[in-house]
TrEMBL record:
Pfam families, per the entry: ARMH3_C
Protein name as annotated: Armadillo-like helical domain-containing protein
Subcellular location: Membrane
Domain Armadillo-like helical residue range list: 451-786
Highest taxon of the lineage: Eukaryota
Keyword set, alphabetical order: Membrane, Transmembrane, Transmembrane helix
GO cellular component, one term: membrane
């Protein structure tokens, strides 16, 4: 056979001595032997086979050379030297039983490199060719079962940490063979041989956060192997895990991993505004632009750096999701987890040195902090699935009643599940709130930024900031509509829970109103772009449902009248044209047709600053003299307000002749503004004056809260659709299984929806597209971070870490 050129372009890198005069060049023994294997020769020929393999696995493995040499071989070249690869793989597996630790260590290192490089190849028939190349079809079952059995033995035993780390990396290489975890047929051997107890034992023993992270992430990956087709033993084990010590450590790993991932964002751009010097420097550099610091102002460099984030540690979100979705005991422990101090000293396993890491005060705080950065920097195809998963995790958190003592500082003895309107006291907050945002660092790297909190506020306020940050910075024509639906559902769930618990949340609610109004106007302006999106109509209806809910029950949620007045002002300022236009664009009808409010184009303006300069015109005579249906108001005002017979949107309310809350509110305050204009013809209405009129007449406004609750409940029970014309939909291309609405007269898929009456988030086995796409990124990122950790930490450093 003609000798193949393998290895790096510069073979001298692997020479112990270059040729000098009569002295022959001297190759490293490992390189010389594997050169023969990879060129189709048999280095064991003419030697005692047992002695040859014993000697080979005593030689230190040159991982860089072996990986480089295998990488340069094509798929056909590898298949041509199948016998040599078979021999290496089979003898390495057998050597894992050798009594000498050095041989076992080198055998596993060789297996890790060989598996990793062969799995990179694009074989025509991946599973068949890989097994044929590694073991041959006749020996596959025996060899791989032996391999997993030996991995379990090493992880279970009192072997050195060096040995166990290499065993863990070998298991990772085997599980991450194919980007599609479900198409990696080798993972079937993990289902036959349960390594869950062994991984948990290693997880408990190891002190390094990075190594514990790898063990957790491997469990999460295995728990998602064919979980929709068969019962997955790893997922069942995670759900049944009830050891508080183990769950506590898992919460710690997630907390520290989230802090490290958040730190990677702040290393690109420091958004800490605590320092006055930092503020002045930032402002001056912004004004002077490129002249001040060209490198720091290079936007393209900064964007490129953000595009590479989050790093591979983001794979921890998958096992985090599985734990909080299936294991309520873990959720309780995670919500109660807190670090000992705001600045913790941790062990850096890459250097063996102690490093100071800024950590969040609580596990929930760390996750919210990282989420704010991830959701605002959602710019790439890679970050999109992680953004989606992060939102699902937040949705699960806000759906669970046990979260609210931590989100809202409710005393633990007061179970939210039993806090009814009859026995729940009004919850108020002050500077001594036990769970506050004081230790949470939220992203402020993208404009416009949300206002910073002045003093401690409940954790729920930080969570709302995370969601508003996502909504503000992801409105684009190619936006993830399914993620926006989840975000709206999160806000709706929190609002409904606040109402049930009589929680008045201190929050900058005006930012909420501005964001929701901005979302409605964005959808209106890009209606033609989203018309063909299967979930756009659902997003439109759910957004307006949310606005109406706040209009109706805002006085039971907001801490002061000013927050509610701000909402009313925004509705009066913007009018309901955006809602009506959306109704027409998305063919959302109302039966029977409801009348439209009075004309408002002269009263309000799309720009808040122009409000005062817009004179108020009289309503048309045809409107004043109409005999259309009327809405009853409070005794202190005229008994009826004339309305035009044209239909309007607000959300498919089919409740006799009642106007939806937002339309009722708009019509009510508009009539008082018209009355003021008639009484003061020479004066102009400005924002302050409009706000004053709203405050003066707020007490006279009458809404119908029971009707709204009843309607939302009917929607969830499938007894009504949106005007009888809405179809079904689900979050995440059907992946998350958040099916919300059903056609009129039919039963909902899961009885779910972003309203108080839904049952909660659930996965739908028939719709798993999102999670299958997600696991592709998980495998790729987990494989990368594991290789990075393996290359950056030596066995010597691991030994130092332990000692």
């Amino acid at each position: 056979m003609q000798e193949m050129k393998v290895g790096p372009t510069s073979g001298a890198e692997y020479l112990l001595r270059r040729q000098q005069g009569q002295k022959m060049k001297l190759k490293e023994k490992f390189v010389e032997i594997y050169d023969m294997f990879l060129t189709g020769q048999d280095p064991a020929q003419g030697k005692d086979p047992e002695a040859f393999w014993d000697e080979l696995f005593l030689i230190k493995v040159n991982e860089e050379y072996l990986a480089s040499s295998l990488r340069q071989l094509s798929e056909d070249q590898l298949l041509a030297i199948k016998d040599g690869i078979n021999s290496i793989f089979l003898h390495a597996v057998q050597t894992m039983r050798d009594p000498m630790p050095q041989r076992r260590l080198h055998a596993m290192q060789t297996l890790t490199v060989v598996l990793g490089e062969i799995f990179r190849k694009k074989f025509h028939n991946w599973s068949f060719d890989v097994i044929h190349l590694l073991t041959g079809l006749s020996h596959a079952d025996l060899v791989f079962r032996t391999l997993l059995q030996e991995l379990c033995t090493i992880l279970d035993s009192e072997e050195s940490l060096q040995m166990q780390v290499v065993a863990l990396r070998l298991a990772v290489a085997l599980a991450c063979g194919n980007d599609n975890v479900n198409k990696n047929s080798l993972n079937e051997y993990f289902m036959q041989k349960d390594i869950f107890p062994s991984l948990i034992k290693f997880f408990v023993k190891v002190e390094s956060i990075e190594l514990a992270f790898e063990a957790m992430s491997l469990l999460g990956l295995l728990a998602n192997y064919n979980k929709y087709e068969t019962q997955n033993r790893y997922l069942a084990s995670l759900a049944a895990l009830n050891d508080d010590t183990i769950l506590q450590k898992m919460a710690m790993v997630i907390t520290h991993t989230c802090d490290k991932m958040r730190k990677s964002y702040t290393e690109v751009m420091d958004d800490d505004e605590q320092s006055t010097v930092s503020k002045l420097t930032s402002a001056f550099s912004y004004v002077t632009g490129m002249l001040w610091n060209p490198k720091s102002q290079d936007i393209s460099v900064t964007d490129e750096a953000f595009a590479r984030l989050p790093d591979g540690r983001v794979t921890v979100l998958l096992v985090f999701y599985d734990l909080i979705y299936t294991n309520k005991r873990f959720l309780r422990i995670f919500l109660n987890y807190s670090t000992s101090s705001s600045s913790a000293v941790t062990q850096d396993n890459t250097t063996g040195q102690q490093t100071s890491l800024e950590v969040s005060g609580t596990g929930l705080g760390a996750f919210l902090s990282f989420s704010s950065y991830l959701l605002q920097h959602n710019r790439t195809h890679r970050s999109s699935p992680y953004t989606h998963l992060c939102l699902i995790i937040l949705l699960i958190l806000v759906e669970d009643t046990s979260s609210y003592p931590h989100l809202c500082s409710i005393p633990q003895s007061q179970d939210p599940a039993f806090a009814t309107a009859a026995n729940a006291a009004v919850t108020t907050f002050g500077a001594n709130a036990p769970t506050s945002t004081g230790m949470i660092r939220l992203c402020r790297q993208r404009q416009p930024v949300l206002p910073k909190f002045k003093g401690p506020v409940p954790m729920a306020a930080a969570l709302l900031d995370v969601i508003l940050g996502f909504l503000k910075h992801n409105m684009k024509k190619k936006m993830q509509v399914d993620c926006f639906r989840i975000a709206v559902a999160i806000i709706f769930n929190m609002a409904a829970r606040f109402k049930a618990l009589r929680v008045r949340l201190p929050y900058h609610w005006v930012e909420m109103w501005n964001t929701l109004q901005g979302l409605v106007k964005f959808l209106q302006a890009n209606a033609k772009v989203f018309q063909n999106h299967p979930e756009a109509r659902d997003l439109v209806a759910e957004t307006i449902d949310l606005v109406n809910y706040f209009v109706t029950f805002g006085d039971m949620i907001m801490p002061d009248p000013a927050s509610l007045y701000a909402l009313y002002y925004e509705i009066v300022r913007s009018g309901i044209d955006p809602f009506s236009d959306l109704a027409k664009e998305f063919t959302i009808s109302v039966q029977p047709p409801l009348p439209a409010p009075l004309p408002h184009h002269d009263l309000t303006s799309r720009n808040r600053l122009n409000l005062a300069s817009s004179p108020i015109s009289s309503p048309p005579e045809s409107v004043i003299g109409s005999t259309t249906p009327r809405i009853s108001l409070s005794p202190g005002l005229p008994s009826t307000i004339p309305l035009s017979p044209e239909p309007i949107l607000p959300i498919g309310f089919t409740l006799q002749q009642q106007l939806p809350p937002s339309a009722t509110l708009y019509t009510f305050f508009f009539s008082h503004l018209l009355a003021w204009r008639d009484a003061n013809p020479t004066r102009s209405l400005g924002p302050d004056l409009v706000s004053t009129i709203i405050k003066d007449h707020y007490q006279d406004l009458t809404l119908v809260p029971n009707t709204l609750d009843s309607f939302l409940s009917m929607r969830q029970n499938g007894t009504t659709g949106l005007g009888g014309v809405r179809g079904g939909g689900s979050y995440g291309n059907g992946a998350g299984g958040l099916s919300t609405h059903s056609p009129a007269g039919s039963s909902p898929v899961n009885g779910l929806g972003p309203h108080p009456a839904w049952d909660g988030y659930t996965e739908v086995p028939g719709k798993v597209y999102f999670f299958r796409q997600l696991t592709r990124w998980i495998v790729s990122d987990f494989r990368s971070i594991s290789r990075h950790n393996a290359s950056s930490v030596t066995l010597t450093n691991i030994s130092k870490t332990v000692s």
